[in-house]
Amino acid sequence: MIKGQQETICWLKSVKPGNRTTKVIWMHCASLGEFEQGRMVLEHLKKQHPEWKIYLSFFSPSGYEMRKNWETADKVFYLPTDTPAHATLLIDTLQPDLFILVKYDFWWNIIRYLEQKKIPVILTAAHFTENKYYLRRPFLSMIKKWKYIFAIQKESVDIALHKGIQQIEAVGDPRIDRVLSIKSHGTELPERLVQIIRSKPKVIIYGSVWMEDIKIIKNVIRDHPEYFHIVVPHDIRPDNIRQIKNEIPVESAVFSKNEESSQCQIFDQIGYLSGLYKYANLVYIGGGFGKGIHNTLEPAVYGIPVMMGPKHQKFAEATENIQAGNAFCVYEADDINNIIHAYEEAAGFRQKVKEGLEVYFDKHKGASEKIVGYICSQL
User: What is the pTM of this model?
Assistant: First the structure.
């Protein structure tokens, strides 16, 4: 990341100012998850206005390294440290007509200099709660000056209005448009993996799991030999893969080593998880016994039951689907076993989940187009 930030500064200093001939849009994302929430906005903008210049910045290596060659953007770069000098260099060089933030990751000096230069700022995929630091001074006075805020839920709008933020509306989560696009167009997977999955009658996928999750799901894997279990760790470093393999109490295989197992596959490559989900009967999403769950929308779009740990309250989509009976919070292995039993035995369980998720996605789709419509009307 530090090396990438230095490369950004060198690139900015090498850019020669020229005559502006088109609009410039700059979007900043903290990491890969935020990018997935903002991605469809940029794709729609580029489709409608291919002549516009698109800049995309990341803070996290997990975002930049995965999307540094993304073809929709004219340039993808690491955001340098937030100093007044870097903010001046960035904005005076890029000369954006609009700065788009996704969800959070507010950079004080950059936003202050944008304000000084009278460059509009919009926030997309906003999710406000009462105790957020940026809803207190001095950030609150800064947010009140932003051009517009697109929130995921009405609850965020209510909180914002209570704080005196007027320029806000609830349009839904743009990430929903992204997962619907993935479902429609598919994701190319390694052929060997597809062949392995298709040879199995029933599949459970454990996506983006940590060691805290392994301590729960290892017993589920042991208790259900009738299922083929695909474990996709969040951390795919060799030491972590070895530790996971040692924890799992059945024969398991590591994909990159061309190992084979009839019971459990540990998939140690990145970029394929969203495409894997369409082959699952059930899915467990990791992170719910740590800092927070990972993406539940990617598997849910296929109409399958999704399970997760208790740390899901910060994620509106997870909470809403749990309350509707479309997804399930689990605390121990027996909870997962009970859901598997309901999936196999309870009349109407599968159909109820499938229909409930169809209603959810139909209700919440279209946020990206609403945001794009607003941007185009302003520029």
Answer: 0.86
